[in-house]
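for the recovery benchmark. tokens below, seq after
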């Protein structure tokens, strides 16, 4: 047997080694919705929402530790992953309505929400407009506050190119956008996303998903200062030293608008701190959700 080892052998499956989890589909407001879950449904529910163009595997390194304390459920959001892709312009209210339908399908009226990027934007919308549904709120490199044209243009270009030509290199480039350490983009992660982007009609879906990168659509969807200040749920804002979408100072602005919010910056991480430094993220995240900090 050869002793030669690949330099980048990380895998979603190795992340889930030893974890009791399941993958399935549920009907949420007429939308066939894919989910991955760990933990016991008798425990407090944590609903995890990924970023734009993403999927539930964004949380592959969080299912095990969180499943020890919670019913931890990550979904493929509306139009994303293996969830249904209706022919609509995907705006924040649409995502939020789907998430509420997921909550109902899970048999719950409320949950703790953790959202990364677009997922944080959607979770913020829920905390503002449906406060009764949000027990605790974690905003992880969250969208909704900033609108940098150069960032929006780059994200739109990378995403549309990857969906129109789901080649190895284009998918790799899209995933590297998320990371401080580009070597974290493993072959397995590339193939996981490539299969999603290679679905029939996904190119058209991606163009609709990217509507929030157009300023005239983005602006009415953004969270206002008054809305942030109205949030009642205990909140944690997680930012990173190398986030490609906004600075730590901008993340701090969000935390200072939310009454009583905690704020933390994770070093040497990009847009996916829950993946790049899973041990530290899991520690601070679980402590917050358990009310220990």
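predicted aa per position
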């Amino acid at each position: 047997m050869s002793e030669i080892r690949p330099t980048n052998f990380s895998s979603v499956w190795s992340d889930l080694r030893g974890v009791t989890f399941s993958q399935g589909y549920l009907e949420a407001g007429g939308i066939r919705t894919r989910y991955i879950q760990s933990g016991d449904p008798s425990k407090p529910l944590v609903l995890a929402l990924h970023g734009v163009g993403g999927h539930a595997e964004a949380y592959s390194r969080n299912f095990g530790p969180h499943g020890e304390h919670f019913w931890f459920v990550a979904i493929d959001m509306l139009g994303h992953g293996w969830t249904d892709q209706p022919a609509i312009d995907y705006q924040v209210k649409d995502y939020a309505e789907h998430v509420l339908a997921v909550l109902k399908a899970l048999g719950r009226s409320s949950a703790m929400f953790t959202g990364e990027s677009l997922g944080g934007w959607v979770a913020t919308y829920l905390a503002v407009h449906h406060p009764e549904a949000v027990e605790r709120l974690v905003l992880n490199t969250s969208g909704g506050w900033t609108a940098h044209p150069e960032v929006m243009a780059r994200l739109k270009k990378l995403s549309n190119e990857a969906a129109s030509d789901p080649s190895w290199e284009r998918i790799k480039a899209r995933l590297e956008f998320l990371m401080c350490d580009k070597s974290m983009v493993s072959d397995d992660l590339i193939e996981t996303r490539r299969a999603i982007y290679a679905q029939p009609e996904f190119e058209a879906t991606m163009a609709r998903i990217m509507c929030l990168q157009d300023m005239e659509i983005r602006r009415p969807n953004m969270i206002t200062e008054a809305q942030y200040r109205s949030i009642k749920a205990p909140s944690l804002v997680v930012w990173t030293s190398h986030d490609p979408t906004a600075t730590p100072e901008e993340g701090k602005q969000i935390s200072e608008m939310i009454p009583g919010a905690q704020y933390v910056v994770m070093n040497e991480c990009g847009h996916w701190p829950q993946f790049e430094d899973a041990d530290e993220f899991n520690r601070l995240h679980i402590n917050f959700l358990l009310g220990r900090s």
